[in-house]
Amino acid sequence: MQSIVLYQIPFSHFCDKVRWALEFYSLPYEAVNFTGRKTPGYIKAPREVQKLTPLIEDPNNDSFFLSDSTPILLYLDERYGNKQKLFPVNKKDEIVQYCLSLDSGLGLYARRLAYLYIISEHPAILSALVDFRYDKSSCNDWKSYLLGLAGSCVIMSRVGVDRIQEEHIFEKTICVLDEIQNDIQGKEYLFDNQFTAADLTLTSLMAPLSLVPGIHEKYRVIFDYCDRMRKLHDPEKDYKSNAQRLYETRPKKSFPIVRSIIWLLVSIFLYPLQFLFAKDLKKKQELQYPSNDAEKKAKNDVRVLKWTTKIESLKFFLRSFCIYCFILPRQLEHVQNEEKRLLSKE
Fold first, then answer.
1. What integer best gives the mean pLDDT of the chain?
2. Domains of the chain
3. In what residue span(s) does the GST N-terminal domain sit (predicted)?
4. Per-residue confidence (pLDDT) for residue 1, from 0 to 100
5. Residue % of the chain over a pLDDT of 90
6. Residue in 206, 126, 165 with CA at minimum distance from that of residue 327
């Protein structure tokens, strides 16, 4: 049997779902990291296939390409799940809908909140999205910091980190987590007393929320449940993305006088520019590959980024850097206030 190719961003929780499923079925696979438009799978895949990670190529099925994590899990289960199944026949439709619901809600919310903390606390981690060095053991140098700011600008615009408060992302996350916490009370597994794609999906998509202190403390029951799923059913029992490891070992913030003066001068210079970009910031962005089939595909909140000239790219990064300086701190403050309010209810 030839190796299935998984095109991935290594710290993506949706890619973790597929990685785990491949190992669950003991399938040989090759992980190929995302390198922008030059990613081999993006070039080779048919036009009708969504060019988003995770994306798999199965050479055992005429180089069949498929993206979107839950459809990939379904494909693997139907083609290779002979000895053990993630979608038991008697609960298949119910589990599929549960996974799609988590993909469309929890997965998107967790991604935004985790990126908010990473960009605010240690943006150098996102230098990997620019230099594509996903396995770096440290990113505390100036080069990583500058590349990380560029990566942060792209991520903020792509997944809407700058609109967490306006779109009530924290509040929506809490509603989902309350339902999950009630659902898992007293259960060994979510469906039919056996490990299924629902447990795998929940565990993978919860992982980014461990970076949000208030949520991690409030919903310890769910995190303990997910830890148990990892230990019992993930061949990589202690799995953590490298981005999570880098975040957990990040240096403590220090503000030397020189750096503080430089940052103040940059902020003063950029302050008038935010009014120049005011209309752009309010403009509703186009989504990439929006899903219109809730029965088969998860919702998608990835925005389209368009620039064709150096002037347009410069304008994009200036606008995004204004967001980083003036809007993102307000988003973080909002989330932290909501966390305090959440913990005060205990």
1. 89
2. 4-80 (3.40.30.10), 88-345 (1.20.1050.10)
3. 2-84
4. 87
5. 68
6. 165
Q: Which residues pair with 6 in a beta bridge?
A: 31, 56
Quick one: tokens of 286?
Answer: 């186009």
Using DSSP's 3-state secondary structure scheme, residue 87 falls into coil
- Amino acid code (one letter) for 207: A
Q: Which of 147-151, 284-288, 308-312 tops mean pLDDT?
A: 147-151
Of 342, 337, 298, which is closest to residue 111 (Cα–Cα)? 298
Q: Residue 280 has which token pair?
A: 């752009």
pLDDT digits (tens, 9 = 90+) for 277-304: 555 555 666 666 666 565 577 888 888 7
- On whether the CB atoms of residues 156 and 162 are closer than 8 A, the answer is yes
* Closest by CA position to 128, among listed 241, 294, 4: 241
Q: Which two tokens stand for residue 149?
A: 């700011």
Give pTM, 2 decimals.
0.91
Q: What is the DSSP string of 148-194?
A: HHHHHHHHHHHHTGGGTTTTTHHHHHHHHHHHHHHHHTT-SSSBTTB
